[in-house]
Amino acid sequence: MRIPDFLKPGRGLGSFSPMGLVLVFGILTIGLASEYGLVSFTEDLELKVSGEVGVQSGDIIPLQVQVQLINNTDNELALTAPTPCKVFKWVLVDSRRDFVQAKLDEICPQVMMQGSLPANSNTTEAFVLDIDATRLRPDTSYELRVSYWGTMGTLPVDFVFD
Q1: Is residue 6 classed as helix, strand or coil in its secondary structure?
Q2: Which of 33, 48, 123, 144 is most buried, taking the most CB atoms under 10 A from its CB?
Q3: Are residues 69 and 10 located together in one domain of the fold?
């Protein structure tokens, strides 16, 4: 039995190797699995952070922050935090990722916080952060890094100076 030339190594397919064929087949398989819901590339728990910079009063700039925790699963998810003070944490960093300000340490009861988030639902909460204007520079941009029930999110922040 004679083998056709295009099936012989180094002939017919040029630089297209059998490994290339395997790669194309793999990408096609992953794409079809994603399309038909066999593979999901979304996070189970997603955090969206939005905010608005308020008007400066003295050395304080209020930053209104809204966090939305989204359950992307068909199951109820348990939420836990080691203490009530660690349900919502934040850090403000500058464009070089240097520390600017964080949530102040406070006396907190040592009680584990527990909650739940129903399937395919979300919860939203708002906070006002008092940003110390003396720590800010007008020649840089800032990023707010937030942790809410252990899920991380970020928000770019542009401050307006008087």
Answers
A1: helix
A2: 144
A3: no
